[in-house]
Structures are given as C-alpha cells and as structure tokens.
Write a structure and sequence with these properties.
The protein contains nine helices and 14 strands. The chain is α/β, with parallel strands linked by helices and 287 residues long. The longest helix is centred in the middle third of the chain and has 25 residues.
C-alpha cells in the first residue's frame, strides 16, 4: 500500500512513540538475529535501520547474531556436508575453523559495516574477545559445540558506555584456547541475563508461538513461564520452537524482564515491538 503520509501524520506517529522512547531511554535491549531472518538483504537493511534508530533515541542495543545458512554455504563449497544432532551442528576441528571464519569474520563485519552505513556506530566482538563467552564441551558426539560456563559482559558494557552498538558473534573459548560453536539463542539469553536487559528480542522466521502452527492468525501474544510449560505438555509448543522457548525462560530466570519471539521477516518488526501499543510476536514473561 503506497499511502503517502502528510507531515502532520508523521508528527502524530512520532508523538505516539514518545512514551516508549522515554520508557526505554538508557535501557539495554538485546536483539538475537540470525538464521533465515538474515537471508533477505532488503529486510536485513531494515533491521539495521531499526537498531540504529533505537540507538540514536537513547536505547542501548546489543546485537547478537548467528549465521547458519552462511556456514552451510561455505561448508558445501569446501566439500563438507553439514551434519546435525538434535538441531545442533556437529562441529569437528575443520568445521569450527569454518564457523569462526564465517561468524567472527564475514557475518560480523558485514553487520558492523551495514550499521555504519545506516548512520550508527557499531563495534564487532566475538565471544572469544575478552573471554566474553567461556565454554566447555557440551556433548562429545558434537565435537566443538560449547556449553556456556561463564559470561563476562565487561567488553559489551564498555562499548555501550562509549555509545557503540556491540555486535556479538557466538564463538566461545576455554582456558586451553579451544574455540567452540555456541548456539546463538542460548548465547543471547546468557548475555541478556548478565546485562540485566530490559528486553530480549528473538528474531525468527515465524510470527511467534501459534496455537495452530499452520495458522499465522492463531498467534498467542503473551505467555508466562507456567503457561509455556502447559503449552509444551499439550503439544502447542513443539519441534524447533521448544529450544527457542527454553532460551526465553532461561533469559527470564537470569533476570531479563521479558522476551519477545517475533518474525524477523516482517519489515520494521523491532520498531513495532518497542515503539507501539500493539507490539509484535509473542511475549514470554515471569509468572
């Protein structure tokens, strides 16, 4: 719909956003961005625009990203077949090198560059910088897939205090110098908890938690931890949504006020969530 806004309508929209700008000014919002939500370049630009706008109005945004499709692409070009066990990538020595190159190199720096092009000040970090994410072996069957043992958010806090948007790739490390592939949702939950974030936004490729997974209009706008557990039992939360909701509950248990699961393919969904009455996606909060 090509509706042309008058200047008065634009001013009205900004006025309606004012209470939300005041509410989030100086607060930390962590955005988990990755997977299929990153594939469309036009949408990616809109996500970066949202993040820059929030940063410019005083919200302290931390961007935590994955990059599974890009990892798969490089592995296949190098003649390696991606393998998964229970949704986690089997990561041998060669694969962890590929993961590190793609996440800490290509994807991280392209997002930092894009934020800069949109007028933001961004700085890239990996979980290995300043021992941001300390990890150990999660399951020997998975190789270099990490279980987080500690999060040191001082590097992120330093960047936020200096006005930067920290962009974090989810590679962990241990005391012996081994690198680990860390699940992006889990890393975002731990980081948001350690920062005492006001909100964690989990961008995915569905609208949120649906009563009927085949009906986007059956979106459940809000669930508590207890309600989420009942939805597990009834089978409403199933498949790939189970680990997502697990991470939401992990974040809340670690001190995040509330978590949103939203469709990263919807244009400007972050702004709709933060700066409007309606919001977007499903909010998960304490009982």
């Amino acid at each position: 719909m090509n509706e042309i806004f008058s200047n008065a309508q634009r001013a009205e929209v900004l006025t309606q956003a004012l209470p939300y700008i005041q509410q989030y000014n100086g607060k930390i919002v962590v955005v988990k961005y990755g997977g299929n939500a990153m594939i469309n370049e036009h949408l990616k630009e809109q996500v970066m625009e949202d993040i820059v706008l929030l940063s410019l109005v005083g919200v302290k945004v931390v961007l935590v990203h994955g990059g599974g499709p890009e990892i798969n692409d490089l592995m296949e070009r190098l003649g390696k077949k991606p393998e998964f066990v229970d949704g986690l990538r089997v990561t041998d020595k060669e694969t962890i090198d590929i993961v590190q190159m793609v996440l800490a190199g290509k994807v991280n720096k392209s997002l930092v560059n894009l934020l800069g092009m949109k007028g933001g000040s961004a700085m890239g970090l990996s979980g290995m910088d300043g021992k941001l994410i300390e990890a150990t072996v999660k399951d020997p069957r998975l190789g270099y897939v990490g279980k987080i043992t500690k999060v040191n958010v001082a590097p992120i806090v330093d960047l936020l205090d200096r006005g930067y948007i920290p962009v974090v790739s989810t590679i962990g490390c241990d005391d012996e110098g081994c690198a680990y592939n860390i699940n992006g949702d889990t890393a975002a939950a731990f980081i948001a908890g350690a920062l005492g974030a006001e909100r964690l936004i989990m961008m995915t490729d569905i609208a949120g938690i649906l009563k009927d997974k085949n009906d986007p209009s059956s979106l459940i706008p809000h669930v508590t931890e207890a309600e989420a557990k009942a939805l597990y039992a009834s089978g409403v939360i199933s498949g790939g949504m189970i680990p997502k909701v697990d991470c939401c509950i992990e974040a809340i248990d670690r001190g995040v006020k509330n978590v949103i699961i939203m469709d990263g393919r919807v244009p400007h969904s972050i702004l709709m969530e933060i700066l409007t009455d309606e919001g977007a996606g499903t909010m998960v909060s304490k009982d």
